[in-house]
Amino acid sequence: MVHGNICCKNVLVARKGLEEGSSPFIKVSDPGISFTVLTREERVERIPWIAPECVQNVNKLSLGADKWSFGTTVLEICCHGEVPLKERTLSEKERFYEMKGKLPEPSCKELADLNSQCHSYEANQRPSFRTILRELTMLQQQNPDISCENSVPTVSDPTVFLKRYLKKVRDLGEGHFGKVGLYIYDPFNDGTGEVVAVKSLKSECGEELHTSWTREIEILKTLYHDNIVKYKGSSSEQGGQIVQLIMEYLPLGSLRDYLPKHAVGLGQLLLFAKQICQGMSYLQSQRYVHRDLAARNVLVENENVVKIGDFGLAKAIPEHQDYYRVKDDGDSPVFWYAVDCLKEGKFNFASDVWSFGVTLYELLTYCETRQSPPAKFIEMIGVTHGQMTVVRLIELLERGQRLPCPKSCPLEVYQLMNKCWESDPVRRPPFQELIPVFQKLYERYKRIETSNILQKL
Predict the structure, then answer these.
(1) C-alpha to C-alpha distances, 442 to 225, 286, 305, 413, 450, nearest whole angstrom
(2) Rounded to the nearest 5°, which phi and psi values hold at 202?
C-alpha cells in the first residue's frame, strides 16, 4: 500500500523516549486527502515532500514516491522540524525540481548517503524500505550517539542564472523600454542547455524605470498559474542589480503573431478567451491589475493553451482599496483602456475586464492589422496626435460608440464584448463569471465545427 503523504505532521508520538532506559515510539497516521485529487498548484505547494514525478503526473503515485517523502521527513527530523524550501515561491519550487536541485543533507555521512538515494530523481533507483530499514538499523548500532545538530539547511538556488552562460540566439521583440531575446542557458557548454526567453531593460533607461523593472520581477516571482507565463529566474550584475528576467520560452509567439498565420476555428478562439479569463481571475485573486492586457501580451504554448505575459505595467491594489491611481502614464496602450482610466487614471479589476473585451475583439478579427483597435478607433476619431488623441477617444466612448462587431462574430459573443465595455465599471462582468460562459460557448461551437467536418467527410 502507498501512503502518499509522509511528513512530520503525519507522524504521531506515542512515547517520547526521553526517560532513561526508554526508547521513543512513533506511529504513522492517516495521509489525509490524496494528492491525486489536488490541483497542480496544490501539488507544487507540497514540494519537497511530493516526489518530482508526481507533480507532473498524479498517476505516478507509487512506493517510490513514499521513499522520496521519507527522505524529506528525515531532513525535517534532522533540522528540528525546519521545512526545506519553505521560503520559496511556487514557481521557484517547481524550478527546483526542473533543475533536479539537491536538498540539504544530514551531517552524518552515512545517513546523508542513504538520504540522497531516497532523493534520486529516478524513482526506480530509490532503495526499498527493507533496505532503508536495514541500513538505518546498522547505522544506529554502529553510532548509538549519532547527532544531526550540524545538518546544513541551505539549498542551492536554481533561479539564479549566471550571465556568462546565457548565449543569445536571436531577438524576439522590443518595446519602449525593454527588449526580449531567445537565449540558451548552457553552463556545461555542451549544447544541452535549456531554451529560455530573456527580458532586459534598454541601456538608456533611468533609475525610475529600474524600480518598475524590479517590481515586475517581484510580481512575476509570486505568480503561479497554468495561464500565466512561468518565471524561471534572473541574472544580475556584480553589484546585485538584476539586469535580466528569465522566463519560459513559448516558440509560437503571441496571439497577435499566431492568429494571422494559422487556421483557427471559432471554438478554439473561445477556448483561448476562457483561458485568458482564468489567468486574469487568478491575477485578481492576488490583487494585481495587469493594465496591458492585449493580444500582443498573450503567448501561445500550443494550439490548446495560451498564457498571459508582460507585467511591466502591472500594479498591486492595496488592501481596503478598490483602485490604483496612475499619475504619469505617457506610454499607455490607450486604445485598450476604459473611459474611466483615460479620464481619471484610475485602474481596478473592472478596467482589466474592459481591456479583455478589446482583446476578445482582436481574437475575433484574427489580429488583422487593418481591423486592429488603433486602426478602427482612428477611423472613428480621425487622425490626431498626442493628448488630442486621448481627448477625442474619451468623447467618442462617452457618446457610447464602441468597436464594431467583427465579421463572422456571433451576436452573443459581441454582446459579451459590449458588457465588458459598460461605461459603469460596476456593470462589467467579473472574470470569474466569464469563465463558465466561455466554457459553454466553446463546447457548443466546438460541437458545431466537429459536426460540420464529419458532414464533409
Answers:
(1) 21, 27, 14, 11, 12
(2) -70, 150
Partnered with residue 437 across adjacent β-strands are none
Query: Of residues 292, 310, 340, 352, which has the active-site annotation?
Result: 292
Instruction: Give residues with Cβ within 8 angstroms of 447, minimum separation 6.
Output: none
- Examine the domain organization and report whether 168 and 43 are in the same domain: no
Residue with cell 544541452: 192
pLDDT exceeds 60 at position 328 = no
195: CATH: 3.30.200.20
* Judgement on whether residues 441 and 307 belong to the same structural domain of the protein: yes
**Pair 330, 425 in one domain:** yes
Domain that holds residue 218: 163-248
Q: How many domains does one find in the chain?
A: 3
Q: What confidence tens digit (pLDDT) does each residue in 386-414 have?
A: 788 999 999 999 999 999 999 989 999 99
pTM of the model: 0.83
Supply the DSSP string of 288-344, one letter for each residue: EE-S--SGGGEEEEETTEEEE---TT-EEPPTT-S-EE-S--TT--GGGS-HHHHHH
The three-class DSSP label of residue 272 is helix
| pLDDT-based confidence at residue 208 (cuts at 50, 70, 90) | low
226 included as an active-site residue = no
Residues 223 and 290 in one domain: no
Query: Do 300 and 384 fall within a single domain?
Result: yes
Residue 324 falls inside a structural domain: yes
